[in-house]
Amino acid sequence: MSHGWNANDIPDQRGRTAVVTGANSGIGLHTARELARHGARVLLACRDETRGREAESRIRRAVTGADVAFVPLDLADLGSVREFAGVHAPARLDLLINNAGVMALPYGTTADGFERQFGINHLGHFALTGLLLPRLLDTPGARVVTVSSGMHALSDLDMGDLNSERKYRRWIAYGRSKTANLLFVHELARRLTKAGSRLVAAAAHPGYAATNLQSAAARMESRRAVERFFELGNRVIAQPASAGALPTLYAATAPGVRPGSFTGPGPLGWRGAPAPSWRAGWTRDDVTSERLWVASEQLTGVTYPDLAP
């Protein structure tokens, strides 16, 4: 990769349509804004309408003539995912950015009864990608980019307890959900290659970027000391959210991105220009990725008939 790739290196996106989940704040907002700045039509797929429309206004103010629109999507509710795919999805889809996520929340379940981190970070995006796959397969040069995290290194999956019902430890559950993201990309890329498709599935992570993701759980539980700790980390150590979005933007737009690749800030994975990222060996395990795929189809009811083994 070229030294110092940045947002100015994004190729012209005119004529292309992108869906960015969780585009109302953090790296999702910056990802959507830069795609719009380079000419893409961008759908801001967000749970909260007020914040989604606010993000739409912010991008319009920052980018003259931006073609952006808020669309409702709640990844914690498979009914909402199906409605998005059936009602709001664009006829042509060049880029699907699976960006939305939650981190280290207290135990809770989604509308469909899944543990929240696994349900939102992995299953919601698995279902969304499956439902939008026909449009992606029909679009030459299309890509799916799923945002994982260096924190995937905290834990491999426990296939016998995907929803952390036996024992819930918030950071381990977060690590597992991010491992699931990487296993999903690994298996999706493998199946696309077998099917002879040129659709590129890749993964990215922001390193340590200053967003509200870190302190959201502490704020929910009024744990002020923890919230302050993360706010301090954001100020002192983290790179800005705009820099955290660069690996996603690289994976989505740079020429020659390899299927199944994992891009992060280099060289240490915390901050810096996009580069190939280290990943735990378990995220490339063909047996586990296939088992997770089958389990995900069963849990969500969303299958990928075009990519059946």
Structural notes for this entry:
This protein has helices at 26-37, 49-62, 78-88, 116-137, 170-194, 213-220, 224-236, 241-244, 246-253, 286-300; strands at residues 17-21, 41-46, 67-72, 95-98, 143-147, 200-204, 209-210, 239-240, 262-265, 274-276. With 309 residues, it is an alpha/beta fold. An eight-stranded mixed β-sheet has the order 3-2-1-4-5-6-9-10, sandwiched between helices. Helix 2 links the parallel strand 2 and strand 3. Helix 3 packs parallel to helix 4 (116-137) and helix 5 packs across helix 10 (286-300).
Q: How many individual domains?
A: 1
User: How many DSSP-defined strands?
Assistant: 10
The name of the CATH superfamily reads NAD(P)-binding Rossmann-like Domain
What is the C-level CATH assignment?
Answer: Alpha Beta
Flag low-confidence runs: 213-221, 232-238
Mean pLDDT across every amino acid position: 90
Largest sheet: 8 strands, mixed
- CATH fold title: Rossmann fold
The CATH architecture would be 3-Layer(aba) Sandwich
Strand order of the largest sheet: 3-2-1-4-5-6-9-10
Estimated share of beta-strand residues: 5-15%
- Helix/strand/pairing category: alpha/beta
Q: What is the share of helical residues?
A: 40-55%
